[in-house]
Specification:
Layout: H1 3-9, H2 15-21, E1 34-40, H3 49-63, E2 68-73, H4 84-90, E3 95-98, H5 122-131, H6 134-144, E4 147-154, E5 161-163, E6 177-179, H7 182-190, E7 194-196, H8 200-209, E8 214-215, H9 220-226, E9 234-236, E10 246-252, H10 253-258, H11 261-295, E11 299-301, H12 305-320, H13 326-361
Parallel strand pairs: 1-2, 1-3, 6-7, 6-8, 9-11
Antiparallel strand pairs: 3-10, 4-10, 5-8, 5-9
Helix pairs in contact: 3-11, 5-13, 7-12, 9-11
Length: 362
């Protein structure tokens, strides 16, 4: 049976957990300094996302007091942006920092640990991950592939993207060459778009050359740094695809198990700290960046309701095709339940407050 067939017919934590239970307990190399190679999906210096990877590495290096040294390899320096998963599972590298929805071909449930269409906001994701079943499910999914995973960054709500022309209705996506990874890209595919999945460092050139007609990236600050406003002036600031995109740190499980308990805890704490630090970095910078973009002639737009409706229909179609997979269905059930509970309270408390604040203070 190949791995895909195994995944299709197994429940999380079943065969993989039983197999791992037969392994010998790790031998800790007490007092022995180790260097861990981190490969990333990000070009060196790519605003926000590379910063999050650097933050994790710096924190591990500082907190371990010399017992661990993380060396970062940006996309292309050791392996390509989308090859980091295989590099770590094979032992070519020790850990990766990436967006796990890049790896839905390994398993579609990985999308939930970045973002899914019409899914969780950043706060809702943190609720599920830290106080619901999210972290445990991420860990169990990673165990199948020999990984120990943590959330280690968040971009907040991402923009709908940059377009060569205004979008009047869902028909404008038909034949559109658009860069969007993950399940969101598959949603646009149901609307007739020709979806491209390009590493972040390659997007500017593809847009400038006309290889793509439009792209999503992250949000005003990172998009401004990438320079997309130099190419097109039509910018949609809200999208369905990533309302609170998580970034992940995954360590080869054999490597992780060989570390001391204190070193393991350092990696966990460094990842969690980077998650909140990264989210604040994006949210702190997006407002002023959007003002600069508008001052430079960028036209800020919202999709019409007809587009949102078509996207919602496409999101259901895409998700339904994976529901026969036990793992995907289990993760989705947990995710949806937590999202409904969090959203109910946030809407009635913070949502009401913000609407009234905006109304009364202008």
């Amino acid at each position: 049976m190949d791995r895909r067939s195994f995944l299709k017919n197994s429940a999380i934590g079943g065969t993989a957990a039983a197999a791992s239970a037969t392994l010998a307990a790790p031998a800790y190399a007490a007092g022995h300094a180790r260097t861990l190679t981190m490969v990333t999906s990000w070009g060196r210096g790519l605003a926000g996302v590379f910063d999050a990877a650097q933050r994790v590495a710096d924190s591990i290096n500082a907190m371990s007091d010399g017992s661990l040294t993380v060396e970062i390899k940006a996309a292309g320096e050791l392996v390509g942006a989308f090859e980091v998963f295989d590099a770590v599972t094979s032992g070519q590298a020790d850990m990766y920092h990436a967006a796990d929805y890049y790896f839905i071909n390994q398993h579609p449930a990985y999308a939930f640990f970045t973002s899914v269409p019409f899914g969780m906001t950043a706060q809702e994701l943190m609720n599920w991950y830290n106080h619901g079943e999210g972290a445990a499910l991420h860990d169990e999914l990673g165990e199948i592939f020999g990984l120990k995973s943590f959330l280690a960054g968040n971009t907040g709500a991402q923009a709908g993207g940059w377009f060569a022309k205004e979008i009047a209705g869902p028909e404008d996506f038909n034949g559109l060459k658009f860069r969007m990874p993950g399940l969101g890209g598959q949603v646009l595919g149901t609307m007739g778009a020709s979806v491209q999945n390009l590493p972040g460092a390659e997007v500017y050139q593809a847009l400038a050359s006309g290889a793509i007609d439009g792209t999503e990236w992250i949000g005003p600050w990172a998009d401004e740094k990438a320079g997309f406003q130099e190419i097109t002036k039509f910018y949609y600031t809200a999208g369905m695809h990533e309302p609170g995109a998580g970034l992940s740190l995954a360590t080869n499980r054999d490597v992780f198990d060989s570390l001391t308990p204190s070193q393991q805890k350092i990696i966990e704490i460094a990842s969690g700290e980077a998650h909140s630090w990264s989210l604040a970095q994006f949210l702190n910078n997006n407002g002023s960046a959007l003002q600069r973009l508008q001052s430079g002639g960028v036209k800020v737009l919202e999709f019409p309701d007809s587009v949102w409706d078509a996207m919602a229909a496409g999101a259901k179609t895409v998700s339904d095709q994976y529901m026969g997979d036990d793992i995907y269905a289990k993760v989705k059930a947990s995710y949806d339940s937590s999202m409904a509970a969090s959203s109910s309270w946030l809407t009635q408390s913070e949502g009401t407050y913000r609407a009234q604040r905006d109304r009364t203070t202008g």
